[in-house]
Amino acid sequence: xxxxxxxxxxxxxxxxxxxxxxxxxxxxxxxxxxxxxxxxxxxxxxxxxxxxxxxxxxxxxxxxxxxxxxxxxxxxxxxxxxxxxxxxxxxxxxxxxxxxxxxxxxxxxxxxxxxxxxxxxxxxxxxxxxxxxxxxxxxxxxxxxxxxxxxxxxxxxxxxxxxxxxxxxxxxxxxxxxxxxx
Length: 182
Known about the structure:
- This protein has five helices and eight strands; from the N terminus they run βαββαβαβαβββα.
- By secondary structure, the chain is an alpha+beta fold.
- It folds into two domains: 2-78, SP0830-like domains (Alpha-Beta Plaits); 86-178, Alpha-Beta Plaits (2-Layer Sandwich), CATH 3.30.70.1260.
- The strands form two sheets. A four-stranded antiparallel sheet has the order 2-3-1-4, with helices on both faces. Strands 6-7-5-8 form a four-stranded antiparallel sheet.
- β6 and β7 (135-141) form a beta hairpin.
- α3 (79-87) crosses α5.
- The chain is globular.
């Protein structure tokens, strides 16, 4: 089965530095096949016959801590679940180039309602947040980013329960995960 691991908070602002070569080696040391990373922000695609995602996630997080010396949380999705999550996006997400579009993947265990409530009241004229399948789709007007509620997520404690990928990255990951499917 093909999986996608989304690591949270690596290589951001010079903190939690993770080499992609070492990252691939960590996954390969677990016996995973066809390990590949995409960009320097912790997107790992791999294959394994194992199907218990909870066990896989625990195994991967332990390997990451051993390899890099600090705790790293991940979101782990098989290719079908990732496709379903991205397919749950609202029709407007990713469409307006004057807006920034992100996917906020929720780290298990999570409660979508808790995350949405913690974000707070939105300003609908300049931002939108839509709950999908294990993901929140965020869009905010570039020119008013500093005025948005969701643009200030990094200062919100709920931020530790999500890992963010922009629209282009989510689309490329979908393409890489489904490239072999007919």
